[in-house]
Amino acid sequence: LFLATLTYDTLRFEYEDFPETKEPVWILGRKYSVFTEKEEILLDVTSRLWFTYRKNFPAIGGTGPTSDTGWGCMLRCGQMIFAQALVCRHLGRDWRWIKGKRQMDNYFNVLNAFIDKKDSYYSIHQIAQMGVGEGKSIGQWYGPNTVAQVLKKLATFDTWSSLAVHIAMDNTVVMEEIRRLCQSNMPCAGAAACPALESDVLYNGCPEDVGLRERLTLWKPLVLLIPLRLGLTEINEAYIETLKHCFMMPQSLGVIGGKPNSAHYFIGYVGEELIYLDPHTTQPAVEPSESGCLPDESFHCQHPPCRMSIAELDPSIAVGFFCNTEADFNDWCQQIKKLSLVRGALPMFELVERQPSHFSNPDVLNLTPDSSDADRLERFFDSEDEDFEILSL
């Protein structure tokens, strides 16, 4: 026990504290001052769900790896950006985790969706096995685009969160596609209780807490992931200002990327440095206790977060945004349009009303580079089983 405490305390000193700077600190759409709000900054960072390498979990696929050390860092970053979307969806951006404080059930529901076992919606088991369909064998390193594609597929099984997940390919966000996706008349969680849509029936027959307002507006909360390549081998400086602005938007879910073959989850910036959560720590897998409660301290990073120079960022990233309502999405579109007017900021992607006619069908050809041309070809020839019905001749 003493040793464990010792290593934890020595860990605390390895991490440099926040720099004393007049520059504002931005964390996922929130602005802080180091001088007056240091505790708030650290509490915000600690409240994010932190997923790291784990060991001794049940074998993936029954006979596969029991640890993801060395290969799972991008999968863990995918879990972190998606967990942030679920936190915003079920707990709200203002929710905070306080050590030792009894958390609400929804918090444990979110956390349980990521636990290292085969039946959690977004477990390492599910991500690794779903990745096989994207041409990745279990234990193989993912790029940001692959993990985004896999999470999108897994989200369809998560009826509790009822998310619309859109991955914008070819550096283009098509507003019409997103509206079509979010306004699809898919029933939200609890909708079975209200078969009819006449407002009087709804108000009389449904308790308030089944997401009544959501179903009346018929907008599914949106997770928007945009895989990008911001340069050939290093990030083009012209994109840095735009990238910073992404962390300033209230819809920000942060960025997944990192240094070559070493993935990080970026949650903000200060000055010319990015602030990130690092998955490269191996912790023992966590088992729920007999009471069904989950020991959750190891899922929160309780030391100051890591920082790195923006210039060191690998150019292959995916940027994430969460729009809980249609108004959030409209606001996001306005901010992106304004951003294109900022001097010295090169747009990282294009926002268009409808699909340009020269585009191929987006389901057939995804040409955002992930790591290599071979990867792109693999995805091009990867048939999407759910989109085709095989007819017997």
TrEMBL record:
EC number(s) per entry: 3.4.22.-
Major enzyme class: hydrolase
Domain of life per record: Eukaryota
Domain Peptidase C54 catalytic: 39-335
Signal peptide: none
Catalysis: reaction(s): [protein]-C-terminal L-amino acid-glycyl-phosphatidylethanolamide + H2O = [protein]-C-terminal L-amino acid-glycine + a 1,2-diacyl-sn-glycero-3-phosphoethanolamine; [protein]-C-terminal L-amino acid-glycyl-phosphatidylserine + H2O = [protein]-C-terminal L-amino acid-glycine + a 1,2-diacyl-sn-glycero-3-phospho-L-serine
Cellular localization per UniProt: Cytoplasm, Cytosol; Cytoplasmic vesicle, Autophagosome; Endoplasmic reticulum; Mitochondrion
Entry keyword set: Autophagy, Cytoplasm, Cytoplasmic vesicle, Endoplasmic reticulum, Hydrolase, Mitochondrion, Protease, Protein transport, Thiol protease, Transport, Ubl conjugation pathway
InterPro entries in UniProt: ATG4_LIR, Papain-like_cys_pep_sf, Peptidase_C54, Peptidase_C54_cat
GO terms of biological process kind: aggrephagy; autophagosome assembly; mitophagy; piecemeal microautophagy of the nucleus; protein processing; protein transport
One annotated GO molecular function: cysteine-type endopeptidase activity
UniProt GO cellular component terms: autophagosome; cytoplasmic vesicle; cytosol; endoplasmic reticulum; mitochondrion
PANTHER family: CYSTEINE PROTEASE ATG4 (PTHR22624), CYSTEINE PROTEASE ATG4B (PTHR22624:SF39)
Family, similarity comment: Belongs to the peptidase C54 family.
Described purpose of this protein according to its UniProt entry: Cysteine protease that plays a key role in autophagy by mediating both proteolytic activation and delipidation of ATG8 family proteins.
Protein name per UniProt: Cysteine protease
